[in-house]
Amino acid sequence: MTHRLGRPVAALLAGACAATAPTLVSAAALERAVPSVVRLLYEDGAYGELGASYAAPDLEGKNAQLPATLGGAFVRGNTGDLLGNDWSFAGALKGDINEQLSYILLFDQPYSANTNYRQGTFPDFFNYAGTDAELNTYQLSAGLAYDVTPAVKLYGGLRAQRLDASASLPPLLDYRITADDDWGWGGFVGAAYARPEIGLRVALTYQTKIEHKLDTTERATFPTPLGPQRVTLDDRTEVDTPQSVTLEAQTGVAAGTLVFGSIRWVDWSEFAIEPELYGDVTAAALGEARPLVDYPEDWWTYNLGVGRQLTEDLAGSFSVTYEPQVDEVLTTLGPVDGRTTLNAALSYDMGQVNVAGGLSYGWLGDTTNLLDTKYRDGTIFGAGLRVGYSF
Fold this sequence. Notes:
This protein is mainly beta. It has a single domain, classed as Outer membrane protein transport protein (OMPP1/FadL/TodX) (Porin). Helix content is 8%, strand content 58%. The strands form two sheets. The protein has a 14-stranded antiparallel β-barrel with strand order 1-3-4-6-7-8-9-12-13-16-17-18-19-21. A two-stranded antiparallel sheet has the order 14-15. A hairpin with a 4-residue loop joins strand 8 and strand 9. The model is unreliable at 14-26 (pLDDT under 50).
């Protein structure tokens, strides 16, 4: 028995659910959004879309254990909410060159950080106030897809990515760093198999890492026998955003009903931001040279959901996204270890226009930093909206 699926269900599962994905901030370390190239390539004919998402995380850290170099005291206090709310935007255009060859152009913001510690309830002699981090990326992708057979599609293309960042850690010798923006290049390649008559589609996509060489300025104040000495270092810091592999699948299970899911691996264990002066700062303050940001393990993200056509023009879905904890000490600038989110979405057809939107709510994984500050009971709320037009 075959299960034919209408346009709303197809748009929903490949669209509305994707519209909620950018709201899942802190996915896989710094990852903000995971746009599906495959979804866009399966749109009929010429197609364009614009999307926006909003994320409001809530996370606090409690207490700290100072190393001997900073006095060795146990400090009681609460950081207050340290993760900032965030907007992100995306857009795409897909078109057919001939019956077998199509193209795609895509804009997205794949990685970000927005951390800002306030005074909280820590005492004046030690607090996190002024500790912050900001990282922004803007990415343009262009690719081609070729239908090898009616069921098999091969695709690939190039990615141009801009990255800029800054950070401040006043508790560590008043350390500060700014990085000029830099463009890096990478690519993607994949294959998909589809049987539209039963809603079946399976796709595997690989994205290369992208190398960045950032011109950085670092500043810190070191204690000396003659008093505090402010040190400034202009240098170049190399940062590679990580490679990844994503497996996506969906299939019809009944008339008007689709089950979908994905598994994603990101090579975060090879990612690190290691400015030279920061190594000297952590050696002096903590007794050990450390990277500014690094992740000890790779991240895996799993998503599973179901979509249902509600009326001729309206479809809805519900999905769960799960990212296991790596159970390691993480950076003060992004102390989130894993997550579980619930996502609900709707998709509505209005002739050539499709509007898809969704809400998500989730729980952030617990972790600690090098000062044994405990980050617990974090949550996140998100909303996404996408408008697509078939030419």
